[in-house]
Structures are given as C-alpha cells and as structure tokens.
Amino acid sequence: MEPGNDTRISEFLLLGLSEEPELQTLIFGLFLTMYLITVFGNLLIILAIGSDSHLHTPMYFFLDNLSFVDICFTSTTIPKMLLNIQTQSKVITYEGCISQIYFLILFAVSDIFLLSVMAYDRYVAICHPLHYMVIMNPHLCKLLVLVSWIMSILNSLLHSLMMLRLSFCTHFQIPHFFCELNQMIQLACSDTFLNNLVMYFAAVLLAGGPFAGILYSYSKIVSSIHRISSVQGKYKAFSTCASHLSVVSLFYCTMLGVYLSSAATQSSHTSAVVSVMYTLVAPMLNPFIYSLRNKDIKRALKRIIGVPEM
C-alpha cells in the first residue's frame, strides 16, 4: 500500500507493543496464556452459574452476563494481535478497524453498565433485604440487562458511523495493538471536532454517569452497614459486595490509569502498554476475584471439575 493523497485507504498498520523481533515470542506467549486464562476462567463462571440452581439469583444473573461480556471484550483485540505476531504482519483492513472499534466500545460500555447494575443489586440486597426478591424480580433483571445492551449498541454504532465520515491521508500507522478510538481520530486528516466532542461527551455521560450511580449505591450501603450493631452482621453485609467493589476498583482504576498516563507522557506507546490492564488483565482477574471470595461459586466450580466437597 502506497500512502498518497487518497482520502480513503484500505489498510492500517498496527505497530503493537514492541517492534523488537526478539520480544515478539515473549509477547505472544504471555498474551496467549493470559487470553486463555481469561476465556476459560470466565467460561467456568458461566458454567458454574448455569449448572447450580442455587446460583439462579439476580446477583449471579448479572455476574453471568459480566463474564460473557469480558470474554467478548478480550476477544475483540487479543486474537488479532496474536495473529499479527504469528504471521509477522501488522496489517488490519479499514473495515476490520471500524469493526474492532465498534465491538470494543460495545463491550466496554456494556461492562460499565453491568457493573453499575450490580451495584444497584447490592444496594437493594443490603438496604432493603426484606423486599429484595420483590424489587429484583426476573422481569426487572432482564430489563436492566436489555437496556444496558441497547444503550451500548447505540453508543458504539454512533461512534462507528462518525468514524466513517473521517478521511485518512498519509498517516496509516496506529501506535497501538488495536484500533483505539482516540488514536484513530488523531490519525485523521479531516476535521475531527465533532468526533472529539461526541467522544468526550459520551465518556462523561456513559462512564461518569454509571460511576456516580455506583458511588451513590455504595454510600447508601456503607450507611446501612454502619447502622448494624453486631460486628458479625457488618462483616456478613460487607462480604456480599466485597467482590463487586474489587472488580469496580480494578476496572475504573485501570481505565483511569490509561488516560492519565497518556495525558502525562503524550506517548502512544505508554498508552498502549497501560491499556493492557483494562483490555486483558482486568477481565482475566475477575473470575479469580469472584471465585476466591465466594463459597457458592467455589462449591459449584468443585462440582463441575469433579473435586469432592469437604
């Protein structure tokens, strides 16, 4: 492909995390291992919830959806990266790049919405325990997930369609291991004001809004736990939301770390390295966080694997 004055190019080059040949094998092995752990770990969570009738509750229904989204989220970027290393090719087609942006935003925003819905679920469980099953009925749970998907689809469709209006001239090298929205907008040679406006507005609305909801839910949870007289009661109440709080902290801290590091260093390579945290490390750790701190999940996993219960 020869760069020229064409406003429409057919390919981009993903520069990846490193261009040093001796590191490619190490990166391939590391990312393949982490990707397989992510997929199998989240699949085990899905199988455990589906096979155990005791886990057919609102909390585990949302966790089931979160595990599915995490698998899809990592599968949007990592397989293409591994394929490029294996084939020693950095090429991604224009259509492939737009598709990657669409699905990456779709599953990232779905993740955010599901985490906020799970915070609401914990709020109802701790602050209104007597009305929990009435409020969090199957119809409401399905409706919350459906609305989360619809909002995510519409948002990712908007960003993808707005990408189609941009022209790319001579800059077709992406200093990343996937087609990241902000990087793509920076590469465009046409006016990107509207794209930037929509991107930042959506980030504040669709990431900041749910995060504010999570903070509100936990402020009510902390207030409710504080009113419990016994230490054992406080511990039991807090333990029901400790795993979710850990996952929320991991997801938002890694996302925040990416944008703070890119803003501080102005280095695309640094941003690419740090983005590994939320695209792969966070989804990989989620199954461990929920299984290690949850007796019901551990019991269901032992039954699947065939380990006798003590």
Automatic annotation (TrEMBL):
Q: Which residues cross the membrane?
A: 26-49, 101-120, 140-158, 197-216, 237-260, 272-292
Which compartments is it annotated to reside in?
Answer: Cell membrane; Membrane
Q: Gene3D superfamilies in the record, alphabetically? A: Rhodopsin 7-helix transmembrane proteins (1.20.1070.10)
Provide the G-protein coupled receptors family 1 profile domain boundaries.
41-290
Q: Where is the signal peptide?
A: none
Looking up PROSITE patterns in the UniProt record yields:
G_PROTEIN_RECEP_F1_1 (PS00237), G_PROTEIN_RECEP_F1_2 (PS50262)
Q: What InterPro entries does this protein's entry cite?
A: GPCR_Rhodpsn, GPCR_Rhodpsn_7TM, Olfact_rcpt
Could you cite one Gene Ontology molecular function of this protein? olfactory receptor activity
Principal location class: membrane
Q: Which domain of life is it from?
A: Eukaryota
The entry assigns this protein to a family as follows: Belongs to the G-protein coupled receptor 1 family.
This protein is called what?
A: Olfactory receptor
User: Which organism is the protein's source?
Assistant: Nyctereutes procyonoides (Raccoon dog)
